[in-house]
Amino acid sequence: MLGFVSAVGxxxxxxxxxxxxxxxxxxxxxxxxxxRDNKRxxxxxxxxTDARQRFRDAFKPLxxxxxxxxxxxxAERSLLLQNVAQAATISLYMLISPHIKDVRANVFVLDDNPxxxxxxxxxxxxxxxxxxxxxxxxxxxxxxxxERHEPAFYPDLTTxxxxxxxxxxxxxxxxISVPIWAEGSVYGMVSVDAPLKNxxxxxxxxxxxxxxxxxxxxxxxxxMEPPPPSPTSEASA
Length: 237
Fold this sequence. Notes:
Helix content: 40-55%
Number of strands: 6
CATH superfamily: GAF domain
Largest sheet: 6 strands, antiparallel
CATH class: Alpha Beta
Oligomer: single chain
Shape: globular
Number of helices: 6
Strand content: 15-25%
Number of domains: 1
């Protein structure tokens, strides 16, 4: 630097040095910002990888139980549906509970008598939910809902609620429900709720819809009637 001053003279050095310092400062700031950007991108990629891993881990048991259904008899499949439904509520709880306290996931199934819908699996806070009975405001609303084949999301039940919602008896202020149906057949619904309003999101609804679609496949497989015996097998018997 002293050689530079000697070469250009002290007057020009006084004029040029601030500019050089500014250039160096700008370069340092760019290097620091680049380092921050790289750390941010690395962090975002780690977060995406972690989210994908949690998604895989949450849904793997559900897929495995569903894959076992076709290899069992008709009578056995109806019993195995309990395992499939339990895996479904556990998967939703695993994915939603990290960002929402005291979330609850339920799978409800229509009884052989279609005037009643009872819980098949439950994961999360509290006790198992009550059945939906025809002839009550709560039951009639739920039974009509599943027949519409459309999801329902109520972010804040203190300001907007569905027909039949019994606010004095419910311990939640937000919920998502999605019917389980396929090819015109309705099997029940998946529901997720939380005690505090505006905690569930549209992203959570997408997860519930995905689980409901998967359960629709499982129910359809479980309800497939066994094929009648072939004439050849009857003759050999």
